[in-house]
Amino acid sequence: MAYTVRGNKEIMPEGQYPIPANTFTLAESLKKGGYVTGAFGKWGLGFPGSEGDPVNQGFDTFYGYNCQRLGHNYYPNHLWSNRDSIALTGNDNGKKEQYAPILIQKEAIQFLEKNKDTTFFMYVPTIIPHAELAAPEHLIEKYRGKYLPEKKFKGTDSGPEFRLGKYESQDESHAAFVAMIEVMDTQVGEIMDKVKALGIEDNTIIVFASDNGPHEEGGADPKFFNSAGPLRGVKRDLYEGGIRVPMAIKWPGKIKPGTKTDLISAFWDVFPTFSEIAGVEVPKGLDGISFLPTLLDKPEEQVQHDYLYWEFHERGGRQAIRKGDWKAVKYNVLKKPNAPMQLFNLSTDIGEKNNIADQHPEIVTQMKALFLEARTPSDVFTFNQVSF
Q1: Per DSSP, what are the bridge partners of residue 122?
Q2: SS3 state of residue 71
Q3: pLDDT digits (tens, 9 = 90+) for 246-263
Q4: What is the CA radius of gyration of the chain?
């Protein structure tokens, strides 16, 4: 294909630009290998009924938000169960009786129970914490007044755009944020407890990771919570604070508890890794590299990336490359494609505070060549893109 989905491109009234029908997904790969597949949470790779709909891309079961934009709202008008739109009447007329993360979690647990005696792949793209800050009142009450001074956010609480992607107001953003983290933490624990109770703990791999750094929308306050730690930037930045995320993996009998790795890896490495673990053929032409040798503590067998490349299509266009300890960043590439790049050495400057491009012209030359090599232009996803 000349392009694949590289970001959010809205399709109204619900959904995003779809991944093509001939895209071979991880779910399709594992399903071909005999796995039952389920996804529970937020999609965003194809509007309902399109070729990108999760049930058309290898998932036997889907429950949640098809649309990432509508996934901004935690008390939505509906959720999707496979091809059926499930009305949530408890949220009609501004009511807050059906908290979507709880409904989605119930379906995920049922999937585990139903498939405990077979091989399965369960994907849980939780919406917590997405953008809107909202949680059941009893949880907000638990943290009320404990994270002062509070931050107030004025959002959309009525009108034609209400609960169609716009964030609702929140007078206690800090308490709400912590309450949401408790929901997520509890639900991760419920999944792990269920796996143990079903007697499949020793034969189940559990992976927990984030898709990006902390966000600032909807009243979120990453500075207050020091969410990015020593890293620079937040979600949508291509500095480390926007793209470096934690990943924790539990694999009883294979991964020694408490071990860590400094392997430079990325999400596109998950496909070949899971394929190798499952014993299914790894598709040709993937950018990803299996990190199974690292999981099995066989570093001598681990193939590593020559470099990693990222791009972001909004806010004037942004690009970044990491090669070893070197990190090159370019902003405003739409208007200034040849503007000087920033260069950092992450081994000594994890906060990307010191641009040392002038001191290393040979590295800058290498990075310029890699920027040209890494990118295939797209007619659909361009650097002047705007999405919700």
Answers
A1: 38
A2: helix
A3: 999 999 999 999 999 999
A4: 21
Cα 224 to Cα 76: distance, rounded to the nearest angstrom: 28
The answer to whether residue 174 scores a pLDDT higher than 80 is yes
Per-residue pLDDT, averaged over 25-49, amounts to 97
Residue 250 phi, psi (nearest 5): -115, 125
Dig out the tokens for 275 from the structure: 């394929």
Cα(first)–Cα(last) distance of the chain, in Å?
Answer: 25
Q: What's the DSSP call for residue 283?
A: P
Q: How many of the other CB atoms lie within 10 Å of CB of 387?
A: 14
Token pair belonging to 216: 């600032």
CB 40 within 8 A of CB 82: no
pTM score over 0.85: yes
Instruction: Give the confidence band of 383 by pLDDT, cuts at 50, 70, 90.
Output: confident
- Residue 388: per-residue pLDDT: 63
- Do residues 373 and 349 touch, judged by C-beta distance below 8 A? no
Does the pLDDT value for residue 1 go beyond 70?
Answer: no
Rounded Cα–Cα distance for residues 66 and 93 (Å): 22
Query: Rounded to whole angstroms, how far apart are CA atoms 44 and 370?
Result: 29
Find all residues with CB under 8 Å of 121, minimum gap 6, and list them.
26, 27, 30, 31, 35, 36, 37, 38, 274
| pLDDT tens-digit readout, 195-242 | 999 999 999 999 999 999 999 999 999 999 999 999 999 999 999 999
DSSP annotation of 16:
B
* Phi, psi dihedrals of residue 142, rounded to the nearest 5°: -60, -30
- C-alpha 370/C-alpha 308 separation (Å) is 10
- Give phi and psi for 343, each to the nearest 5: -130, 130
Token pair listed for 345: 């050495």
pLDDT attached to residue 3: 54
* Secondary structure of residue 242 in the 3-state scheme: helix
